[in-house]
């Protein structure tokens, strides 16, 4: 029989709940507990042996292995997008970006990074996000004045990369650096920093998992990372969000608040974590700690946004205006319902400046209902739920009820799912399903006239993706009400991400009538 690590091994002197994840004797070994991992290890000698010297290698640790796997996956992801930065010589004898014959969709290499370089006026010198405007659809009834459409940190990230691109091409023109189309240089520079952000996400998950550092390998090898790490700029937000949860786990509420505020300045979703933390702190009587984190997060977000709110208000508000006026996304459940039922009650086609009031109301109300359900779950569960479980449920609820589910948004769920439900086979199945939605999406955009797919085929895969996410949510709820089935708790932890909540006694508990 194999030796299974147990709690009888005493931690090293001075160890804390935050550093005990580094104790090799406390680790959960996936090749012993996960059939999928055990099968995957056969080509390299099989599962870890009974007398293996765990934790004694001078270099290789679970974290470093996870980072290496992440580098490999991100490299594959870059090659998957590289077809969209190829060039050809045009009729004028100049090199041009080769997007002929629907290349982004046929090669499935589409990335928002490439078209946004020119669409957001980043290819021009002397521009600045939220100050520079342009006219879209000029001379038509859909004419609009546009500004940078992203939150402040993401907009500044794009602008800095554009400045680096201009500097690179200037030096390349003198022969000191390899040259390429400016948009290709811009994409590669952006991809480098996005990859670094995803590696930070892997690092934070490995440090947060305590007894299960190997679970970070799931984040590293995620098919969603391979397909979508460079589709947009979302790995910036995942890095801030994962590091914020790590800071909370290490009982640093101010640092957690700063990171949540920065994450919200890149993408709004990290602020959703404050909801689960609120109800958990209410149950444990730790509202002072939550208040510190919430006020710090709000102050950080305001500090980043305030200069733009005061001096570039029209450009700064573009992100909020577009999200208010935007109709239902092709990937949303509302579009699925509209297509398969023929119902056009979600406001239908919109003219420029029109707001889908009914759609916004329904979407917002459904999300609030889900949040109320998560709060009820947190207060009625027999054992206080873990932070990762509730954060996963809230973010999943937002994606399922929101009118927009851009494909790269699924990256938000990856670190949360790994920390909430460390079941390798189930998570890999969901990630594969979610990543595969990219193929029919691309061929749907290609168009039937260009031998693409009908919309119904694409929406069928969206339904399967949504059902997979719902199934994960059901599993999380089941494990919350039956903590004996929670793999994290059965390994000996209460809540690795809990911080001040870890091991705390309950103060406020609502008993459901059924109990």
UniProtKB/TrEMBL annotation:
InterPro entries: GT87, UCP010361. It comes from the Bacteria. The chain crosses the membrane at residues 65-89, 185-206, 218-248, 254-282, 294-312, 358-381, 426-445, 457-477. Residues 1-10 have a biased composition (Basic and acidic residues). Its main location: membrane. It is found in: Cell membrane. Keywords: Cell membrane, Membrane, Transferase, Transmembrane, Transmembrane helix. Pfam families: GT87 (PF09594). It is a multi-pass membrane protein. Coiled coil: none annotated. Residues 1-24 are annotated as: Disordered. Belongs to the glycosyltransferase 87 family. This is Glycosyltransferase family 87 protein. It comes from Prauserella oleivorans.
């Amino acid at each position: 029989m194999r030796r299974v690590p147990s709690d009888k091994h005493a931690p090293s002197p001075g160890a804390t709940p935050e550093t005990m994840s580094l104790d090799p004797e406390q680790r959960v070994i996936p090749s012993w507990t996960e059939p999928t991992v055990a099968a995957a290890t056969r080509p390299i000698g099989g599962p870890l042996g009974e007398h293996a010297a765990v934790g004694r290698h001078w270099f290789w640790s679970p974290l470093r292995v996870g980072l290496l796997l992440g580098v490999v996956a991100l490299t594959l992801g870059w090659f998957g997008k590289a077809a969209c930065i190829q060039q050809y010589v045009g009729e004028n004898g100049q090199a041009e970006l080769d997007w002929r014959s629907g290349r982004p969709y046929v090669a499935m290499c589409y990335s928002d990074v490439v078209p946004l370089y020119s669409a957001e006026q980043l290819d021009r010198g002397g521009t600045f996000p939220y100050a520079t405007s342009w006219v879209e659809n000029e001379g038509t009834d859909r004419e609009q004045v546009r500004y940078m459409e992203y939150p402040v940190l993401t907009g500044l990230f794009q602008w800095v990369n554009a400045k680096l691109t201009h500097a690179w091409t200037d030096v390349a023109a003198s022969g000191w650096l390899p040259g390429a189309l400016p948009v290709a240089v811009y994409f590669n520079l952006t991809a480098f920093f996005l990859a670094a952000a995803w590696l930070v996400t892997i690092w934070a998950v490995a440090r947060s998992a305590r007894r299960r550092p190997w679970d970070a390998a799931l984040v590293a090898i995620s098919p969603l990372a391979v397909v979508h790490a460079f589709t947009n700029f979302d790995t910036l937000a995942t890095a801030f969000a994962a590091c914020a949860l790590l800071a909370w786990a290490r009982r640093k509420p101010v640092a957690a608040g700063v990171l949540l505020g920065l994450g919200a300045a890149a993408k709004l979703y990290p602020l959703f974590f404050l909801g689960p933390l609120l109800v958990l702190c209410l149950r444990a009587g730790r509202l002072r700690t939550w208040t510190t984190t919430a006020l710090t997060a709000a102050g950080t977000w305001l500090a980043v946004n305030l200069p733009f709110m005061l001096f570039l208000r029209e450009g700064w508000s573009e992100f909020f205006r577009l999200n208010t006026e935007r109709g239902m996304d092709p990937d949303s459940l509302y579009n699925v319902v509209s297509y398969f039922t023929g119902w056009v009650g979600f406001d239908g086609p919109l003219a420029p400046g029109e707001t889908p009031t009914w759609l916004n109301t329904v979407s917002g109300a459904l999300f609030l209902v889900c949040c109320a359900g998560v709060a009820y779950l947190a207060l009625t569960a027999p054992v206080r739920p873990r932070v990762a479980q509730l954060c996963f449920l809230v973010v999943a609820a937002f994606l399922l009820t929101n009118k927009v589910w851009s494909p790269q948004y699924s990256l938000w769920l990856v670190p949360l799912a790994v920390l909430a439900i460390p079941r390798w086979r189930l998570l890999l199945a969901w990630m594969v399903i979610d990543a595969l939605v990219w193929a029919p999406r691309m061929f749907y955009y290609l168009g039937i006239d260009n031998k693409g797919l009908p919309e119904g085929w694409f929406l069928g895969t969206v339904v399967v993706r949504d059902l997979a996410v719902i199934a994960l949510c059901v599993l999380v709820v089941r494990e919350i009400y039956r903590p004996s089935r929670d793999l994290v708790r059965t390994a000996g932890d209460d809540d690795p991400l809990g911080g001040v909540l870890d091991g705390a006694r309950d103060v406020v508990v609502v008993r459901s009538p059924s109990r």
